[in-house]
Amino acid sequence: MSDSEASDSEKSSSTRPSEPPSSPESNEIEAKIEDSSVPVDDVLNPTEGSILFQPHRTIGLISTSQPFTLSNGTSHLDRFITMPLQERFVIYKCDTIKPVLVSDCLQGTRKQTNEEKIGISSAGERLHYAVSESSLGITVATHGYKGRWSASHASLYKRTKVIDFKNIVKNSSWGIVNVVNLGKSKFPVEVEKDNDDDTFDDSDEEMEEKGEVRMENSLVLAFICAKNSFETMSEEEEIVGDDSDDSDSESDDDMSSEESESDDESTEETNYNGEVVIVVASRRKIIIQKRIPLSSVATFTPSIAIHPHTYLNKILIGGNNGEMILLNIRSGKVIHRFLCLQNEDDSKITAIEQSPAVDTVAIGTRSGMVHLVNIRMDVKLFTLNHKVSKSTRNKGKAEITSLSFRTDALALEHGIAPMAVGQMNGNISVWDLTPKSNDDDSDDEFTSNKDGRRTLLCQMDAAHRGGVAELKYLPQEPLLLSSGIKSNSLIMHIFDNPNHTGRILKQRVGHVAPPTVIQYQHSSNGTVLASMSDGTDAASCQVLSCGGKGDNSLRVFSTARSVLDREYGQGKGLEKRAKELGLEGGKADLLLKPITAMASCEAKTREWGDLVTIHQDHAIAYVWSTKKKSQSGPVLRQEEWNVSAMKAQPPKTAHATAVAMSSCGNFAVVGTKGGVIYKYNVQSGMPRGSFPRDATDSKKGKKGEKMAGNINRTTKMLERTFKVHKLHNEKEKDSSVLEAQAIMKSKLQMARHIDAAVVGLAVDALNKTLVSAGSDGKLILWSFATHAPHRKSPIHLSAPATKLVHARDSNLLAIALEDYSVVLFDCSSLNVVRKFSTEGSSTRHNGPISDVAFGPDGRNLYTASLDGTVRVWDVPTNTCVDWMTFASAPTALTLSTTGEFLATAHQGRLGISLWCDRSFFQTVHLNGAEPPSKPFQMDEPAAVAEDEDESAIVKRAASDKNKFLSSSFTKTIEKGSADDNDEAVVPKSEGLITLSGLPAAHWKNLFHLELVKERNKPTEAPKKPVSAPFFLQWRAGESMGATEPSTQNETSKIAKNDDEEWEAAWVDDDGQEKSAPQREEKRKNGEENDEEMPVSANFDKPTKKTKIKHFRSDLATLLEKCSSSNDYELVTEHLASMGPSAIDVAFSSLCHGMHDLDEGLHLLHLCSKWLLQACSSRRSYEVINAYLHRFLHIHSTTIAGVDDSTDKDLLDRPEHEDALRLELLHTIKQLKETHDASTASLKNKMQETLCLLRHFSRMV
């Protein structure tokens, strides 16, 4: 495909959002949308933001199965990693593993969008790779529709917002399998924003001279694309002719490709399986520079690639069949096909990593082999084998997923060369690649393949559940950062032990399975008034979360600070015990079963446990301490139940299904599958009877022992209270007692859950009444003291109950039923007072109700359903006031203590979503007469960015509103390309101070530039290494073996051909066989041209350097240009695009001292006028102050000399120079006064704010 045609096809693809493969149904619906006669609402059902709630943040979501990328830096203190996180990416700071930047949501990630309405299986998109460049402030992310086998599009982010995107692959059978960062390079960038042409031709140099094109640093990436060989092609696809691989018919293929890309119903058929797409990303747009089809190796399917060190314009690509090729991206030719791995098992190459030694790379395969290969000589040095036991469970677990080399000084001091290997089984192996013995006597060192020569330093078993997704040694530090495929964790290991083993230094861990039960810690306490912003009570900002199937952990997540996140301990030494028992699952096999329900009470938090949990298919309940963050209380069980798993277990009818705690914190009640409710003392764990009483009456106690629930004792007490035992004779007493017992027995038989599970329990605030709801449709009230049922019990419900929630302040019960309705029961009047989501109502749920919760004041009721919605009900008016729908169905919800935040857990999502109630900070009008007729689509909140200030959080939350995506996204992208993406911050009123929004490193380093220069100054000249790299045993210049004299000439010819072949890996030519003298002679004669090079590729020809209009610097040229209009805004923009060192050079070039005043005095005056105008505008306050500091630091001596010499040697200077000196001094004086005024104003405002904050804090 020619570059112009590729640009046209790319331009057409960039004007519409990414789409999945089209279908007849989708085309039909799209035709309806384009038809103006059909309302869009009838087709796509657009939605707006919720009435009450807006997205706030997501907690507990750390990582996904996608690998992260590591940014450059001098130490872990200034390094960052970019982690794809579903439809967003998060940038973590390496020193604290805290998120510092969270991107906006990818466009089109809602389930109830046009994709679902038109029957397309895709439900949103997800990121696959994300590469950030901190110096440019951009991130390039590849993404594709969920359910697609690989990424298909690339988006350009300016900090958190998408500013451009491109369709990279040709059709649905192609995908992006890897991204290679080729570094930064200068490219011509068009200044005019409305020009959509993405190509660069010879006219760019002329445009550059006219000022329409400028050179700008850009990020260069190589997208490795492959064809999915397992996907069957549809019958409707258009088959291109067999001559598509012929180079002579390249233009014809490009035309057919362009037509097929413009038509959604047709795709292009190619006879090769790989392609490399070179992409250039600037601060404004992303451009496809060139496409390199791997047609010369048609059977090669790429899987992964790297850019080897010192190999200019070369990338090393590994394939699915175990092959490797070296590609010159400048000429687009495969310059070598490696043969050293052909005798292996031909398994897929899954990982490639550059070693500290030049020409040597480590290659990991699917079969668990790691090969060290010298790519310059095409020789395999040695192999490391990672074996796993052959079983169905371990199938595919030996695959190598990631490799990394350690390069710190500590390893060199100990004489080791560590290499970390991550596998699909979750193990991390650290090898010492230093040979154990001297191999000088080996006859054939290249072919030696002895694993015993390399030592396994340590192996971290099951470091990540589901496999290791990515691991990286931080450069020059003994720190290993790793993430898991299914572990939802980011762990930093440090290797500082004498035996070279690692230990966990820092980690961020979340659930490995979607949480099923969540609850704000002590959310029932309505007296604590705390919010996330003021941090009055940390407990009010903590959410207890229980993992689902496969995750048996109990965790607490802080909604304010992630450092408070903890996993509740279930015992000491579990990992060691699991190793002793030989459990393959490790610690997870010794944990308790998944938690199905929990109850808490804060009254006795300081004395004993305050949290009780019940577990799946388990009869025993466990007591936890939220203070100790562990299971530190007794186990709640009946005396005849065995704790040991080796003995007889309780019957299945005793398995716990519901739990509740009394308001005093002394008792816990546990409902079972058989309908019996057991009562326990939380402090001692002793049983205290049951509901009904006869469930434990058969147990005979000691003589004289008083047992709770003994009916004989209770009857005697009642008789003595009412004195009925003295009114009758013995016979009448016996008959009356028998009659009373018979009535009581019949009542007891009715007031119980017979062979029906107890689904909900509640205890009132005074510990007088216990309420139970069962799957048999009965609601029973019990006396908490006597264990007797209420005289009106049981109360029959309209359908079996599934959930029960109690509001203690109002003594109301919300009971979810199997018919998708909710009833409100008043425990005081013993009547059903409200019915929600009834049959025939427009606000009825369409699926089972998964959770119910009351607001703090009891006036609002929140219901979550598996139909994917959450409804908010106003209890007094019995109306639905809000109706929200989500991309995945909510399984649990909970309200904060003050009701400010709603937390929800969803199917298939590891994180917990927080939603902010906007009625707390703005006026919200609820129309009870007209309930919502359509659900409001809610976006998934972003992850926590903890280094943001409060205003940035509010601004991000306000911009993350729920808006329906339609074709207007195209206009947004076009507008983003036309408008300036660096939007200037405009103050709300004149005179307000604004900040620039530039990275802190841009202006902070100007204050310490001398220190930086001194630190970067080399201490000594570079020295030649004493010995060869540690695992290269071959020595140049020595014969590999004895050769016959008659064959020496042939050997020399072969060596000469090999040298010429490998010379291509070191020279940056276009593959033409020209000698150096011939090329030099042609350059002198002007005969050599670039006809064979693509005109749009920046790699093909040297870029013409920008002509400096002024002999000093570009800054001097801009000052001269802006002085005519007296508008120096361009100067500020120009310096904002430069680095600290370049700014220092630009300021220094204005004037070189007192001897340079003839020409430098005028430039100093212009620069001072620019600074005066910038300070007066009070915009970009911190950057302008940094520029002023640097300007005065460089030229303060010269300005002081001008002031001292104004009254001297007047006769030796011309009059215009005297006037210019006076103008400079006058401008400097004005600059000082303006700066002092703005500084004083800022100090006064800050002082007033601090005084107000101090005053308000004392009031609290």
From TrEMBL:
Residues in WD repeats: 842-883
Residue stretches making up the WDR36/Utp21 N-terminal domain: 288-496
GO BP of this protein: rRNA processing
Signal peptide: none
PROSITE patterns assigned: WD_REPEATS_1, WD_REPEATS_2, WD_REPEATS_REGION
Species whose genome carries this gene: Chaetoceros tenuissimus
PANTHER family: WD REPEAT-CONTAINING PROTEIN 36
InterPro entries linked to this entry: Quinoprotein_ADH-like_sf, WD40/YVTN_repeat-like_dom_sf, WD40_repeat_CS, WD40_rpt, WDR36-Utp21_N, WDR36/Utp21_C
A Pfam family assignment: Beta-prop_WDR36-Utp21_1st
Disordered, as annotated region: 1-34, 192-212, 234-271, 1065-1100
GO cellular component term, pick one: Pwp2p-containing subcomplex of 90S preribosome
Record's compositionally biased regions (Basic and acidic residues): 1072-1087
Domain WDR36/Utp21 C-terminal stretches: 989-1255
Keyword annotations of the record: Repeat, WD repeat
Protein known as: Small-subunit processome Utp21 domain-containing protein
Highest taxon of the lineage: Eukaryota
Residue spans of biased composition, Acidic residues class: 193-209, 234-268
